[in-house]
Amino acid sequence: MALRKREYMITTKTDRQIDQLFISPSGQKTFTILPYMWVYGCGTDKPPPGNTSSPPNIVLYDYQDGRGGSHPKDFLQGYRGPLQVDGYQGYEQTDAILAGCWVSVTRTTQPAKIIDARV
Question: Per-domain residue ranges for the chain?
Answer without folding.
Answer: 3-115
